[in-house]
Amino acid sequence: MDRNPLFPLAAFLLLVLLSVFSFMGYLLAARRFQTPPPPTQVTVETREGTRHLRARLARTPEAWSRGLGVRQEKLEALLYLFPQATDAPFSAEDYRFPVVVAFLDGEGRVLKVARLAPGEVVAPGTAYRGVLEVREGLLPLQPGDRVLP
């Protein structure tokens, strides 16, 4: 059985075409993810009333590593949501301004509130499923308040 002499050339052209399409997909995907999604609102129900804050939700380890005090966006709050309860310390390392941190249960109820100056770390002493980080002086938070994404 004789092989067609054009077979190696056709196979090579097919490989080049697949490589070009693959590279174009990579470039288009990288371009699409460069702009962050628009900020959202977080609703905080306190004893003094309901307040809506311009915020961003942090649901991934990458987002958890960039706190409110290091972001360049003009946000009022950052809401961290974790898939499982944790009791890990919370850090304000490299922050530019002080923040108030509210540790939340699985239903968004505030368990504990702490004020953090830049560079400080707080261990909540309790398990929590979320954290609301707010610019200091913006909102008085107390245990029992509720946060809704």
Descriptive overview:
The chain is α+β, with helices and mostly antiparallel strands and 149 residues long. The chain contains two helices and nine strands. The chain folds into two domains: 35 residues; 109 residues, Protein of unknown function DUF192 (Jelly Rolls), CATH 2.60.120. The protein has a seven-stranded mixed beta sheet. It has a two-stranded antiparallel ribbon with strand order 4-7. Strand 1 and strand 2 form a beta hairpin. It is elongated and about 85 Å long. The N and C termini lie far apart (68 Å). The mean pLDDT is 88.
Keywords:
alpha+beta; seven-stranded mixed β-sheet; 149 residues; 2 domains; two-stranded antiparallel ribbon; elongated; 9 strands; Jelly Rolls; 2 helices
CATH level-3 fold name of the largest domain:
Jelly Rolls
Estimate nothing, just give the exact number of structural domains.
Answer: 2
Report the sheet-strand fraction: 35-45%
What's the pLDDT, averaged over the residues?
88
CA-based shape = elongated
Distance between the termini: 68 Å
Largest sheet, spatial ordering of strands = 6-5-8-3-2-1-9
**What order do the helices and strands follow?**
HEEHEEEEEEE
Question: How helical, in percent, are the residues?
Answer: 10-25%
Could you give the count of β-strands? 9
